[in-house]
Amino acid sequence: MKTMVSEEKMQKVSFELNGEFVELNQLLKLVGLCDSGGAGKMLVASGDVKVDGKQELRKTAKIRAGQLVTVGDIRISVDPV
């Protein structure tokens, strides 16, 4: 059974995007959720990563400014520089 995490308890992380996009597995590494891009791919494959509220299973999905990535109780906002 999955439990919902309330908005107030979510940890918010901001990521400043230099360029057009960042691959999802690399984003997870760059914000410190994983030690490597490979570990990021495994995390995505586990089904625990959401992009804009929808489960994302594409390990190298292109994440662009304005998107929200959620992993458990951590919300990553991708902001333009």
Strand content: 25-35%
- The percent of residues in helical segments reads 10-25%
Q: Say what oligomer this is.
A: single chain
Using the CA coordinates, give the radius of gyration. Answer: 12 Å
CATH class identity = Alpha Beta
Do you know the CATH architecture? Roll
Please tell me the overall pLDDT.
Answer: 92
The number of distinct β-strands equals: 7
Approximate shape: globular
Order of helices and strands: EEHHEEEEE
Compute the number of structural domains: 1
Structural class: alpha+beta
CATH superfamily: RNA-binding S4 domain
CATH topology: Structural Genomics Hypothetical 15.5 Kd Protein In mrcA-pckA Intergenic Region, Chain A
Tell me about the largest β-sheet. Answer: 5 strands, mixed
GO molecular function: RNA binding
Protein name: Ribosome-associated protein
Keywords: RNA-binding
Overview of this protein structure:
The chain is α+β, with helices and mostly antiparallel strands and 81 residues long. The chain has one domain (7-80): Structural Genomics Hypothetical 15.5 Kd Protein In mrcA-pckA Intergenic Region, Chain A (Roll), CATH 3.10.290.10. The protein contains 2 helices and 7 strands. It has helices at 24-30, 37-45, and strands at 11-17, 22-23, 49-51, 54-55, 62-63, 68-71, 74-80. The strands form 2 sheets. A 5-stranded mixed sheet has the order 1-7-6-3-4. A two-stranded antiparallel ribbon has the order 2-5. A hairpin with a 2-residue loop joins strand 6 and strand 7 (74-80). The chain is globular and about 30 Å long.
